[in-house]
Structures are given as C-alpha cells and as structure tokens.
Amino acid sequence: MSVTVRSFAKINLGLRIGAARDDGFHELLTVYQTIGLHDVIQVSVERGDGIEIRCADPRVPKDDSNTCFRIVEKAMGALRAKGHVVVEIDKRLPVQGGLGGASANAVATLLGLERAVKKVLPAAEKLRIAAEVGSDLPLFLVGGTALGVGRGEQVYPLPDLPATSCVVVTPEVGVSTPMAFAAWDRLCEGDGQQPAELRLAGQPGAAVPTQARKLTVSNASDRMNELGRVLSAWLSKPYSGAPFGRGRAENPLLELVRAGIENDFEQVVFPEYPELSDGKRALLRAGAKYASLSGSGSTLYGLFALREAAVQATAKLRKQGWAAQATATLPRRAYWERIVAG
Ligand code: C5P
Known about the structure:
With 342 residues, this protein is an alpha+beta fold. The protein is 35% helix and 23% strand.
C-alpha cells in the first residue's frame, strides 16, 4: 500500500535565541507558521525489511542521516510493524533553506507510514519521536500558527489565523544551522568575529569585513522576554466574541509582525551573506508589509495584505533576478485538510 502526503513548509514569525544549554542546544522562542509551498512524500510498505529513500535531488542524503530514514526507524519499532519501507521524496522546496523542508519531510513520512500500516500512534508518542529526530519536527504535527519554545520542539497551537499572502525568496546559498548558532554564541561573547565556516563549503566568501554588535548574555535574555511580552499582548487583545481575527482593525498576522518581532539569526547571517540582506530590502521595496529571514535562512519571506500585491511583487523580484514564489500562509484547518494527497 502506498500513501502520498504533502510536506508543507514553515516560516518563522520572529525568532529569539536564548541561552546555550548544557545539552548543546539553545533556548528558543519563535512563532512557526505553515505555508502553502510543499514537497510530496510517497510512503510504501512492501514485503521484506529495511528502509529505502528515493529522491532525484542529489543533495538529499539517501542513508541513515536522512530525517525520513531516522523517523521510519523509530516509528516502525513503536508501531510494532514489519516490512520494507520505501520513501520517495519529490523535492520542490530548497534544501537547507530555513523552511524546515527536511523536518516536514520526516513528519509527512510518519503520517504516511501510519496510514500505510493502518496503525496509529498516540499523539504524545508521535511528538516524542518527532522531537528525537529534530527540534523543528513537532511543529508539523500541529500546523497553522504555533508557538515554539524549549529548543523549538515544544509546540503550542496558537489561534488559527486567516491565510495571508506571502512571497518566498530562495537564494541559492545554504546556511548551516549549527554554524549560525555558533556565530550567535560568538556574538553574545562579544568577540566580533564572524566565523568563516558559517558559509558552507564550496561557496564564495563574503567580501566585506563584518563588524558584529556586542550582545551580552543578559541582553539576549531580555530580547527573549521582549518577544514574549509582544506575543502576550497580541494574544490578550480584547476578545470581540467573534473568531480570532474578526472585529480586529487588520489582518491579525500583520498586526503581530508589525508589533516589532525580529529574527535574531539575521544579526549573524546577514553580515556573512550580504545578498540576503539585499533580498530582504528587495522584498520591502516590492511592497511587503513585513520581511524577514526564515529560521537560519537562507530563505527570506515577505507578508502582503493582498494577494494581488504579492503576485505583482513576485514578478518584480523575478525581473531583478531573485528566485521568488507567491504563496500564502496555511491555517491549521487547511493544513490538515490538504496534507494527505491520496
Ligand atoms: O534539532 P536539530 O537537529 O534541528 O538541530 C541541529 C543543530 O542545531 C543542533 O545540533 C544544535 O547544534 C543546533 N541547535 C541549537 N539550538 C536549538 C536547535 C538547534 O543549538 N534550539
């Protein structure tokens, strides 16, 4: 039996990096938002045993380092299922792009596997397995708008917001997430050095010398608290009695991002990749109400009040040479309605 699942991407609406923990991870506070761009995952269970990953994209690993491989290994045991599992990945999202592509692929694989073996794991068990594979997998078991805390793996559904037009720009560079966290630590330590290894091997280095701003550790935790306060204020706006979003002055998602939320990764990624800072400026010049790096990048996104404005901005950005795609944020209900493709 073969099951096809859409593996939707996410963006981060603000991301604050807190203290480095003893386990090597960092405390995080972010709002995840699923969007309409997706890969397609096909899961089949045949006679035999073993796990096989198929993908035409040579950048996607086919061995046990693949997140889909790792989740199948864990889930087959938990499901007490047997068979030869084949996962086919139709890669449409950028690899290493800040859209959570590999994480979404793994969660889609888990959901497809449950259907293929006709067994279901309890929600808490799925969340546990997902978090073991990576910090930004569990969000894809919630979908829509979700608060992420801990190392990003503790997720809480936020009110389901109306779809908002969005333009995603995917520059060709890939940013290493662990290296971006390491660069953040150096920034907090205040040595002002941008580590050269933030740029992945084989890519040309930034020509401009970088001057990082010194951030003390307490500054960093103040910044985290500040995002917490912005979120609380936004969530506790007087409830009008209507579903979230109605009776408000404007689109609640735009209201949130306009309250001044930022992605801390921009401070270490932009100096190393000036072209990404240019991409954010290009989105704003093209009419985005808000633009930001997603996760540690290299994807940038812009939010628009109207679909027409997003489509026009996409055409304008493409003319300027940017790889831009118009899409929309994907509310939780639509996420779950659309996830199983057949
Ligand atoms: O959890 P995930 O596998 O996505 O994390 C990849 C790496 O990113 C971790 O090994 C760690 O170096 C870094 N990371 C972090 N703090 C987080 C999430 C990830 O330092 N909250």
